[in-house]
Design brief:
Elements: H1 15-18, E1 48-52, H2 56-67, E2 71-75, H3 79-100, H4 105-116, E3 119-122, H5 125-129, E4 134-137, H6 143-156, E5 162-165, H7 172-176, E6 185-190, E7 199-204, H8 210-222, E8 226-231, H9 238-254, H10 260-270, H11 277-284, H12 286-299, H13 311-318
Parallel strand pairs: 1-2, 1-4, 2-3, 4-5, 5-6, 7-8
Antiparallel strand pairs: 6-7
Helix pairs in contact: 2-3, 3-4, 9-11
C-alpha cells in the first residue's frame, strides 16, 4: 500500500501528484520496542547502496540515502524509467532545498549538487549490484518477480551484501527463499513520500541475523528516519492495523449506518485523523487496497471477517476508479 501507509507497485505518478502537499502525521511512529536490542556499532558499516526500482518509492529511497552521505546506484529496466526517476528526485530535491534554505540560493544549489554527486544510475542489474553493501528492492509488488530478481542478484552481489525488500504486503521470508543468504535478508518498509515520512519498518524473519538488523538500523538512523522493528507477519505494524480500519469504514457505509462524508468528518474531528478513511483510501489507491485485502484473505493468516471483501470497493476497482490517481474513487477529483 502506498502514500501514508502503503508502498506503491511502481509509483509512477504524474507531475501534479508529485507536487501534492502531503499530510505526514497520520500516525506517530513508536521507537524501538523493549523486546528488541538497540543499535550497536558496526565495523562493516554500509557505504554503498543499490536501489532496484526508480518509481516514486525507489526514487525517494535513493534521494534520502544520497542526501545523507551514502553512495547510491539507482537501477531499473531501461533508461526511460531511470530518467523518470531522476525527474522525481530533482523535483523533490528542489522542494527540500527551498524548505531547508528558504532565502539562501547558494545553499539550495549546494544541497542539490551534493546529493546528485552521490547518485549513479544503471540499467544493468549485474553492474548495479556488484559494489553494493546493501541492496534495496522497490519494484512491482509481485512475489515471483521479486524472487526472480533476488535470485539473480544473489549470484552477483558481494557475499556479505545485505538484501532488503520494500514490500508492504508480501512475506519477507517467501521473498528470501530465492536466495542463499537468509541471515542477510530483511524487510525495509519505507513510507511514501519517502523524503517526508519519518517511519521505516524493519522486518526480521526467523533467520535474519542480529548483525544484519543492527546494520539496517544504523542505515535508517543515518538517513534520519525513525526505525521500528517487527516480525514477518501480514501487514507488519502499520498496514496490519490500518487496512482493517479502512475496510470497516467501507462496510459501515455499505450497511447504511452513515455517509461517506460523515464518516470522513467524524474521524478527522473526533479521532484527530488528518484524513478520513475514504479520503485515505482514495489517496492510497483503491486497486492497491483491494489487492492487499484479497491477498491476505487468500493467505488465511488474518481473521476472515477483517479482510472480507466489500462490494463498493470491488465495483469501483472493476470500473477503473482507483482513487485520486485516476480522478475518481469514493470521492471525485475532477
Amino acid at each position: 500500500m502506498s502514500q501514508f501507509v502503503l508502498s506503491t507497485f511502481r509509483g509512477r505518478l504524474t507531475s501534479n501528484v508529485t507536487k501534492t502537499t502531503f499530510k505526514t502525521n497520520l500516525l506517530r511512529p513508536l521507537l524501538l520496542s523493549h523486546n528488541f536490542s538497540s543499535t550497536t556499532s558496526n565495523n562493516n558499516a554500509v557505504q554503498n547502496i543499490a536501489v532496484f526500482g526508480s518509481g516514486l518509492m525507489g526514487a525517494g529511497i535513493v534521494q534520502v540515502a544520497a542526501q545523507n552521505g551514502f553512495k547510491v546506484t539507482m537501477v531499473d529496466l531501461n533508461q526511460e524509467f531511470i530518467d523518470r526517476g531522476k525527474e522525481i528526485i530533482n523535483a523533490s530535491l528542489k522542494r527540500v532545498a527551498k524548505k531547508q534554505h528558504k532565502d539562501d540560493a547558494a545553499a539550495q544549489k549546494s544541497l542539490i549538487e551534493s546529493t546528485w554527486s552521490n547518485i549513479e544510475t544503471n540499467t544493468d542489474s549485474v553492474k548495479g549490484a556488484e559494489k553494493a553493501d546493501l541492496i534495496i528492492e522497490a519494484i512491482v509488488e509481485n512475489l515471483q518477480t521479486k524472487q526472480n530478481l533476488f535470485q539473480q542478484l544473489d549470484k552477483v552481489a558481494k557475499p556479505d551484501a545485505i538484501f532488503a525488500s520494500n514490500t508492504s504486503s508480501l512475506p519477507i521470508s517467501d521473498i528470501a527463499k530465492a536466495t542463499r543468504r537468509l541471515d542477510k535478508f530483511a524487510g525495509l518498509h519505507f513510507f511514501n513520500p519517502v523524503p517526508q515520512m519519518k517511519l521505516v519498518e524493519i522486518i526480521k524473519t526467523n533467520q535474519t541475523s542480529e548483525e544484519t538488523y543492527n546494520s539496517l538500523n544504523d542505515v535508517i538512523m543515518k538517513m534520519k528516519k525513525a526505525p521500528v522493528i517487527c516480525k514477518d507477519t501480514p501487514g507488519f505494524i502499520v498496514n496490519r492495523l490500518l487496512v482493517p480500519y479502512l475496510m470497516e469504514a467501507i462496510r459501515l457505509v455499505e450497511r447504511g449506518e452513515a455517509s461517506i462524508k460523515d464518516v470522513d468528518t467524524a474521524m478527522k474531528l473526533g479521532a484527530g485523523m488528518p484524513m478520513g478513511p475514504f479520503e485515505l483510501c482514495d489517496f492510497v489507491g483503491l486497486d492497491t487496497l483491494k489487492s492487499i485485502v484479497d491477498g491476505w484473505r487468500k493467505d488465511g493468516k488474518i481473521d476472515a471477517s477483517l479482510v472480507a471483501s466489500a462490494k463498493s470497493l470491488d465495483n469501483l476497482v472493476e470500473s477503473g476508479h482507483f482513487g485520486k490517481k485516476s480522478g475518481k474513487g469514493f470521492h471525485s477529483y475532477s
